Structures are given as structure tokens and as C-alpha cells.
């Protein structure tokens, strides 16, 4: 299945602003869902564990066991919040650029999901992009990789950035997981996955670029984003 949004018209500030606001709204809803499903429930569990430990003070061993569980849950919750903060504001992107931000993201995914990321990045392709294009590509790839790690049940996940044509840069995120129907997911899927796909779609429009998602049940998935290079090949070969 291929999902191909049309390239956005340029120079239309009202449309650009509407897309920014649409993305902001989708991100807020996605964040609210993630907080509800993750840290909010963890904090409730922390309160419950603390209450159990308090009630078991007469039995030091039981109380100690409950406190150990409480500590483990607190550390898990803190790690989850740090990961969410990293996804929202990757400091290395502004400081060191797109490739370093991807390397940091790979480390975060490995720590959180135990999933290795296979990367193949053409440095010239990175240099051909504006800072805004790099930022948008980072968030697009982070959303796609998060989806693969959480839902695909894949043994291999890859990210590549190539420069196949003089004026085109191509991002690909692929996995060998269980696949999905993107059209059906946008219509009837669970909210957190619908938000993720909608955010991808809107961010690609901002580049502007073309988004293609190829996926079938049991056949994995491949997301491709093609966009115009800001710098021509002849000026960026070094």
C-alpha cells in the first residue's frame, strides 16, 4: 500500500501556518496519550507501592521488598520521562547536526527496546539539506522508528539517507516486521498510531516532500520520504 500526499504549494503562508497548528495539535494529543499510558499509570503504581510498604512496616523484610519494587518502578518511570523528553527536544540535533542526533536516537532505542538500528547515511545528502529540513527529517524518522520498535515485532530495523539524484534527497526507514495497512490504520486504528501516521503526513507536507509507505501483512514495511536538496550536487561533493 502506498500513501502519497501531494507536494505542498510553496509561498502560501496561511496554509503553512495551518499545517504547523495541525501538527502541534496532533503532537499534543499524542503526548497526552503517551503520558496516560505510561508515566501517569506508573506514578499511580508508585503511590500504591508506597502505601503497601507503609502498611508493612511491622514486617521489615516485606517492607524492604516493597521498597525495592518501589525503587525499580521509580527508576523505570524516570527513564521513560527522559526518553519522552529526548524525542520531543533532541539537543544534539541543534548542537551537532542530523547524523549525530540519529546516532543518539539509535542509542536510546537500543536502551529502551533492545533494538539495534542499521544506519547508512550519505553525509553529502545531510549537507544538502537546510537546518529546517534536517529537523523535520529527524522528527519524521524518529516517529517511524518508534512505531517500528513498538509495533512491528521486527528483528531488523534500518534507516538510510541517500542522494539518488542531483536535486533529490531520499530518507528510508524499513523493518522486517509484521507490517500494517496504513489506510486502514488512519481510519480505524488505535489513537496513538493514528496520531503518529497523521503527524508523519503533515510534517512531510512542510518540507515539502513526498511520503510513500509500502507495507503488507507479514511483509514488513518501508517508509520513504523524497525531498528537494537545498544545495546542488556540484556544490556539495566534498
Task: Report on the architecture of this protein.
This protein is α+β, with helices and mostly antiparallel strands. The chain has a single domain (13-235), classed as 2-Layer Sandwich (Heat Shock Protein 90). It has 8 helices and 5 strands. α1 packs antiparallel against α8 (191-206) and α4 packs parallel to α6. The protein is elongated and about 75 Å long. Residues 1-7 have low confidence and may be disordered.
Structure described in brief:
This protein has 238 residues and is α+β, with helices and mostly antiparallel strands. The chain has helices at residues 13-55, 60-88, 91-96, 98-113, 123-127, 131-152, 182-188, 191-206, and strands at 117-121, 157-165, 168-175, 209-215, 221-228. 61% of the residues lie in helices and 16% in strands.
The second-level CATH architecture is: 2-Layer Sandwich
Beta fraction? 15-25%
Which assembly state applies to the chains in this document? single chain
Helix content: 55-70%
Order of helices and strands: HHHHEHHEEHHEE
Q: What's the CATH C level?
A: Alpha Beta
CATH superfamily: Histidine kinase-like ATPase, C-terminal domain
Topology record:
Layout: H1 13-55, H2 60-88, H3 91-96, H4 98-113, E1 117-121, H5 123-127, H6 131-152, E2 157-165, E3 168-175, H7 182-188, H8 191-206, E4 209-215, E5 221-228
Parallel strand pairs: 1-2
Antiparallel strand pairs: 2-3, 3-5, 4-5
Task: Tag the structure with descriptive keywords.
238 residues; Heat Shock Protein 90; five-stranded mixed beta sheet; disordered N terminus; alpha+beta
